[in-house]
Specification:
The protein has 454 residues and is α/β, with parallel strands linked by helices. The protein has 16 helices and 12 strands. 53% of the residues are buried.
């Protein structure tokens, strides 16, 4: 029977099960070998000559999964990845490091390299039974690969992205603007494919909707939004005066009734086979299965796209429901956001945990893990950036007794400050702050609330 004494071991078991389920290498390997895939086991030999493009936080691991499934691969393999990933790339890969979450000159360089890479694809050189190009796509690519439409510059997009992130936009809103301003998004990389090129896109989804146009801002997917949509959103956010060059660019394109930011014809998309190999539901199901093996009844809710505060309220409400019988566990997956006019170090996962501190003190016994599956939760006042936080009814009570105010810190979006103060004052062997380092995968955030037997 699950008890509070084993909450850390139980949460570690759940976290290990989640990471295994969303392991990019295993997910790609499974996708290539499934019978529903256009590429069966017998066909993998045909992929030895197929070029591969991998982009995103999970790019290196996804590339490793591909090479494991196709061990004799000897075609070009280009990887665009953030730094800090400990997984080594395949030996024959070309690896370019880029930056996230703000685009930089390295993002610009990466985008230019991707375009030249696509231009080298020769469909005639690939057997007719296989795609001419494999694309391994994961979250983070929007910032890692950035090519502003002229006359805009990378500095313009860097400054705008910084402001948009501070406002706590939904990813769908952020990517709507990105697609209008960037020559690698909204299907434009599909338009850059050579004529007749067939592509298979295997995606590790970091967005709740799983919409192809929102994963990495849809480089190989049709764009459902327009330049006028982007301008309207920018106006609603009162950012047009602060970013006049971007506003002028969007006004010009919208006034000319320019089509959506995707200027590629529809034809390339019919040659792009798009499939998701793992997502937030994969993580939630893995967590639930692990919890059930441990003896908890699991209550799973997925697909939250709301503020971190709202998600925390939902989690506490679910735990307090009369129908809940201990031992039980609440599992949430989310794409939460944090809104702040004066951005502070911290992240969505820790903010959700912060919002649970006060009510958790009255849920004894209880333990909550709120964590970013990529291992990097926003920003930090000092490296390394934490992945999330683990709090219990005892740590919640300790925080309140020491005069730490979760409400005041939440209002300032200062979760990093709160948990650092808590850990410094508590001085225990088990800090509330959880640091994993980059995991090499990303399917958004996970919250697990344990309610062991009393």
């Amino acid at each position: 029977m699950p008890t509070f004494a084993h909450h850390r071991q139980d949460l570690q078991t759940v976290w290990d099960a989640v990471l295994s389920a969303i392991d990019p290498a295993l997910a790609v390997n499974r996708a290539l070998r499934q019978s529903v895939s256009p590429i069966s086991t017998a066909d993998t030999n045909a992929l030895t000559l197929t070029p591969v493009l991998a982009m995103g936080k999970a790019a290196i691991a996804m590339a490793q999964g591909f090479v494991h499934a196709v061990p004799n691969h000897r075609a070009p393999l280009l990887i665009i990845s953030p730094e800090g990933i400990t997984t080594p790339p395949p030996s024959h890969a070309e690896l370019l490091f880029s930056d996230h979450p703000l685009p930089t000159t390295r993002s610009f360089t990466a985008a230019k390299r991707v375009l030249t890479f696509l231009q080298t694809i020769e469909p005639a050189d690939t057997p007719s039974s296989a795609p001419h190009l494999i694309i391994l796509l994961s979250g983070g690519s929007s910032a890692l690969c950035t090519l502003p439409h002229p006359p805009l510059t990378i500095d313009h997009l860097h400054a705008l992205t910084r402001d948009l992130l501070s406002l706590g936009l939904r990813i769908s809103e952020l990517n709507l603007i990105r697609r209008a301003l960037d020559a690698t998004k909204g299907g434009l990389l599909a338009g850059a494919l050579p004529e007749g090129c067939r592509a298979l896109v295997l995606t590790l989804s970091d967005v709740i909707s799983g919409a192809p146009h929102d994963i990495a801002s849809g480089p190989f997917s049709p764009n459902p939004t327009t330049n006028a949509d982007a301008l309207t959103l920018l106006e609603r956010l009162s950012l047009t005066d602060k970013h006049p060059q971007i506003a002028a660019f969007l006004r010009e394109r919208a006034a000319a009734e320019h089509p959506p930011a995707t200027t590629a014809p529809a034809e390339p998309f019919s040659r792009v086979d798009y499939r998701i190999v793992a997502s937030h539901t994969t993580a939630a199901n893995a967590a639930a299965s692990a919890l059930q093996r441990l003896g908890y009844s699991a209550i799973v809710r997925t697909g939250f796209e709301c503020s971190a505060d709202a998600m925390a309220r939902e989690a506490i409400s679910a735990a307090r429901a009369a129908s809940v019988r201990r031992p039980a566990a609440i599992v949430f997956t989310s794409e939460a956001f944090v809104t702040s006019t004066t951005p502070q170090p911290g992240g969505r996962a820790r903010h959700a945990a912060l919002s649970c501190v006060e009510p958790l003190a009255n849920l004894a016994p209880a333990a909550l893990l709120s964590i970013a599956t990529d291992g990097v939760d926003g920003t930090s006042a000092a490296p390394p950036t934490p992945a999330g936080a683990l709090i219990t009814h005892t740590t919640a009570r300790a925080a309140l007794s020491k005069g730490l105010s979760p409400i005041n810190h939440a209002r300032r979006a200062a979760s990093d400050e709160f948990f650092r103060s808590l850990d410094n004052q508590a001085a225990t062997s088990h800090p509330a702050t959880i640091t994993t380092g980059p995991t090499g995968t990303n399917v958004n955030d996970l919250l697990v609330l344990l309610l062991p037997e009393k």
